Amino acid sequence: MATFPGFDAPAASTEAPLEMLAACHIRIKSQCKTLQRLSRHLPRHGSDTQAQQAAHNILRYFDTAAVHHHEDEEDDLFPVLLEIAQDDDVAILKELTEKLRAEHREMEAHWQALRKPLMVIAQGQPATLSPHRVDQFIQAYHQHIALEEAELLPMAQRLLTKTDLDKIGQAMRKRRGITQVG
User: Fold this and answer.
1) CA Rg, the chain, in Å?
2) How far apart are CA 157 and CA 173, in angstroms?
3) Angstrom distance (rounded) from CA 103 to CA 94
């Protein structure tokens, strides 16, 4: 993960939007680990209480926080970056943001395939998770995060001004219904 001086990534907030996006990557990876453990747990233990709770937490995360994360990037970060980019950065950012948007759609499709059995598990009913689908979903997210942390976030850190970051943070707060900062 890219480090941003002065911030502990998991606790980052909308006041530091790039740090918050990086912190979200940590939480995504954590939820992916839980999903992987759940897929291994189900054949032996079924939709027991632990499986139900894990499925509920995974559903809550990927139905809300992950959606907000993609919106933060597509609706707020990408447009600002494309607006302020100059020279070689314009072509690089255009190609990068198009690729990241396409990856978002791919991950969303993988999520929809996993969502239905997770809902069944969360309700305590018998269901299985396809190890192949779980691996596809996790691999897609890991590759996507690696690209964002290697290219997007460092470029954003280099190009964005405090005013740009404040604008992005304000949009992130509005999306989440946060009325006060700090």
Assistant:
1) 18
2) 20
3) 14
H/E stretch holding 141 reads helix 131-147
Distance CA 89, CA 74 (A): 17
Going from N- to C-terminal start, the domains of the chain cover 15-176
State pTM to two decimals: 0.87
Count of Cβ atoms closer than 10 Å to residue 144 Cβ: 20
The architecture (CATH level 2) of 15-176 comes to Up-down Bundle (1.20)
Name the band, by pLDDT with cuts 50, 70 and 90, for residue 3: very low
124 Ramachandran zone, left/alpha/beta (phi>0; psi -120 to 50): left
pLDDT of residue 11: 46
Q: Are 20 and 172 in contact (CB under 8 A)?
A: yes
Residue type at 167?
K
Written as one string, the DSSP assignment of 94-115 is HHHHHHHHHHHHHHHHHHHHHH
The pLDDT of residue 6 is 33
DSSP 10: G
Mean pLDDT of the chain: 91
Token pair, residue 113, equals 């395939």
